[in-house]
Amino acid sequence: MAASLTSLVDDLSKYGESFQVFLDSSSEHQTIKSFINGPLTNILASIGEGKPTLNVLGVGSGSGEIDLEIIRQIQLRHPEAKVDNEVVEPSSDMLDKYKDLVSKTSDLDQVTFTWNNMKASEFEKTWKERNPDKKMDFIHMIQALYYVEDPESAILFFQSLLQKNGKLLLILVSGEGSWAKLWKTFGTLFGKNDTSQSVTMGDIKSLLDSRGVPYQKYQLPSRMDITSCFTPGDEKGELLLDFLTEVQGFRKSAPPELTAAVLDLLRRPDCSKEEDGRVIFNNNLEALLLNP
Ligand SMILES: C[S@@+](CC[C@H](N)C(=O)[O-])C[C@H]1O[C@@H](n2cnc3c(N)ncnc32)[C@H](O)[C@@H]1O
Questions:
Q1: Does the CB atom of residue 284 touch ligand 1 within 6 A?
Q2: Residue 94's pLDDT is what?
Q3: What's the CA-to-centroid distance between 60 and ligand 1, angstroms?
């Protein structure tokens, strides 16, 4: 990484702040919730084979809003079952927010939570010692594969934990959307490090195709209002620009020509459209479902 550009992910507390601005500026969570309460419902109904307890694992769960939506849908589909929910999340701040959300959410009496305050790779190392025989009915990695050292081995490991009839859900930005254009153009200039990868669902599909791993795929249209990024000094705009580039304090630390080129690309018609004076970035996502 260029000496002056520090990855946003190197400081998970700063990352969390930028991520929250991203959530407030985009339809990300609405899009994912519509998927969970739409196409995913039948899939969730098919897991578990009538078992009394369903084992669920969330990797990179953040502050838990999406995880609890999945659990709510599982409970609707399996009203008699208990849910054993493992959470893997390296940010203590995020995990505290998740616990807070659980304490404020009703109807979770049948759900137990195990908090793994660690990275996916650390979880993988300890899992086999702790639970040699335990298999999972549903595993999800939602917008988290960017931050693992080796996405391919992570996918294969989590897939290997699936119960017969289990499903692994992956959600990432689409390989055809504006995130892909941004990363393709500037990835090396931003200087991605091991834990901040510009991997898209296009890359993951190529990887699975080359291994002959089958999957079901779903397009999830989403948008992000990036208008504030074009006002230097706007607090939210600066945090959003950090999230887009995955660089801490991007505008202050990047060479002015790089900042100008990034802002230019963000505004280009193949990345964003103008609507009522706002700049709307294409935040399309894609979901894949894998079998054991
Ligand atoms: C983009 S957020 C997604 C959060 C949540 N899944 C959602 O969709 O709201 C990515 C999450 O991955 C976590 N993360 C970062 N590095 C990780 C790693 N190596 N293993 C697992 N999770 C990681 C971050 O702390 C953050 O909570």
A1: no
A2: 94
A3: 3
Q: At what angle do helices 151-160 and 201-211 cross, to 10 degrees?
A: 60
Q: What is the DSSP letter of 248?
A: T
Token code pair at residue 145: 């594969």
Phi-psi sector, 141: left (phi>0), alpha (psi -120 to 50), beta? beta
Distance (Å) of CA 128 to CA 48, 133, 152, 160, 237: 22, 8, 19, 11, 43
How far, in Å, CA of 73 to CA of 38, rounded? 10
Q: Does the pLDDT at position 1 exceed 70? A: no
Please state the pTM of the whole predicted model: 0.95
pLDDT tens-place string over residues 50-84: 899 999 999 999 999 999 999 999 999 999 999 99
Q: Indicate the domain borders of the chain.
A: 8-290
Mean pLDDT value across the chain: 94
The CATH number that domain 8-290 falls under is 3.40.50.150
CA-nearest residue, atom 25 of ligand 1:
91
